[in-house]
Design brief:
Two copies of one chain form a homodimer.
Chain A (H helix, E strand, L loop, with lengths): L2 H31 L10 H18 L13 H15 L6 H11 L2 H10 L1
Helix pairs in contact in A: 1-2, 1-3, 3-4
Chain lengths: ~120, ~120
C-alpha cells in the first residue's frame, strides 16, 4: 500500500471509530452497557445529534460506490459496514446510498462465511 | 515495520483514540464544545468513571518506560502523550508513571520545536 493510500486508510478508520461510532456507542452505553448507576438517559438526544452530524460528514466524502479506498477492498470497508449495520439495528437514520453500500458488503461471500462462523 | 509491530501500533492508537480519549472528550463536549442545547452536565461523573477505567487498563499494559512499542518511537507516543497531557490539563487523575512518561515525551527537542511552531 502506498503511503498516500495508507494515510487515507488510517483517516477512514479513525473517522469511523472516533466520529461515526461515537453517537452509537453513547446510545448503547446509556441504554444498556454501562453499570446502571452511570447511565444518563438525558444524553440520548445528544447521541442522535452527534450521529446525524457524523453520517452527514461521511456522506460528503463517500458516496457508497465501490469501496472506501476506491477500487481496493480493505478492512476500512469491514469496519464501516459493521458500523452502518449497527446504526441500522439501533434505528438511526442512515442515507440510502450508505445502506445500499452496507448491504452490498454484507452480501459478500466472505462476510457470509464470517457471520456463519460467529454464529 | 513488521506486521506484528504494526498490529500493536494500530491497537495502541485505537485504544487511545477510542477508550482513553472518550471520557476526556465527553467531558469537553458537555462543558464547552457542543452547542449549549445539546450539553448534559449530568454526564460529567460518568465521563470521569470512564476515563478512570481506561487509564487503569492502560497502566496494565504500559508502564511508561521507553516508548509504547518498546524501543521504537512512533506516532503512538505522540498521540498517547498528547492525550495524557489533555487529561492532566482537565485535572483528571493520571498515575505518576504515566505523567513521567508524558513529561519525558514533551521534553523531546522535536516536541518543543513542534509546540513552538503551533504557537
Amino acid at each position: 500500500m502506498e503511503w498516500e493510500t495508507r494515510a487515507r486508510y488510517d483517516e477512514s478508520i479513525f473517522f469511523v471509530l472516533t466520529e461515526l461510532e461515537q453517537g452509537l456507542w453513547t446510545n448503547g452505553k446509556h441504554r444498556f452497557a454501562l453499570p446502571e448507576e452511570h447511565r444518563v438517559s438525558d444524553i440520548l438526544p445528544t447521541a442522535t445529534f452527534e450521529f446525524n452530524k457524523a453520517v452527514s460528514t461521511l456522506s460528503h466524502w463517500f458516496d457508497g460506490d465501490r469501496f472506501v479506498l476506491g477500487e481496493q477492498f480493505t478492512m476500512a470497508d469491514i469496519i464501516l459496514a459493521h458500523t452502518l449495520n449497527w446504526a441500522e439495528s439501533f434505528e438511526f437514520v442512515v442515507p440510502e446510498k450508505l445502506l445500499n453500500y452496507k448491504n452490498r458488503m454484507y452480501a459478500r461471500e466472505a462476510c457470509k462465511r464470517a457471520l456463519a462462523k460467529a454464529g
